[in-house]
Amino acid sequence: MGKSLSRKFLTAFYSSFILAMILGVGTAWNGGNPGISYLIWGSVIFFYAALFMFTYGIIVSSLLEYLFNRLVIQKNLKLTLYIILHGVFGSLVGLVSDNLSSFLIGAIAALIYSCIDVWILNIKKQEKNTKKLLYVSTGCMVLIAVILGLYGSMFNPFSFISAQFWIDAVWWSDFWSVTLYCY
């Protein structure tokens, strides 16, 4: 039980970090330098994701693991159901909050959690070290922040020129739809 619980804590940490790394990219253009904004918002997302995963995620995952250890079914089917049920229970938060984005983020977070949990379980069975994931994910986050910091202004998603383009595109699409509708 102790090794399983320590693995769950490690899984919650890694999956919170990876989820923050993925979702932080969408917040990079909230003002200022995109690289710094990515790091700041990634830290905020990590805090809330870790809070959620260390409470709800560990409890649900431990209960699912206890249930699947008692079932006598084929190993591949057990693994598939284990990952899918994590996604289902993660999406329940979105059903409670009645928000589609919470539904999707919860499901994605739970799927990341379950995949990392299975991966860490396999590594622990082979008696290898799990620090590689920390090094790789930290390196990726720093690399993304550096790239966004250096080149983020080139990828500005909404500039004056793109605003003019979209206004013209919407106007022309309305013009043609009205014109075609009249004939």
Indicate the structural class: mainly alpha
**What is the helix/strand order?**
HHHHHH
Amino-to-carboxy terminus distance: 73 Å
Q: How confident is the prediction overall: mean pLDDT?
A: 80
Transmembrane segments: 12-32, 38-67, 79-97, 103-121, 133-152
Keywords: Membrane, Transmembrane, Transmembrane helix
Keywords summarizing the entry:
transmembrane, membrane, 183 residues, mainly alpha, 6 helices, transmembrane helix
Word description of this protein:
This protein has 183 residues and is mainly α. The chain has one domain (2-158). It contains six helices and no strands. Helix 1 (2-24) crosses helix 4 (100-125), helix 2 crosses helix 3 (75-97) and helix 2 (34-70) packs across helix 4. The relative contact order is 0.13. The model is unreliable at 173-183 (pLDDT under 50). The chain crosses the membrane at residues 12-32, 38-67, 79-97, 103-121, 133-152. Keywords: Membrane, Transmembrane, Transmembrane helix.
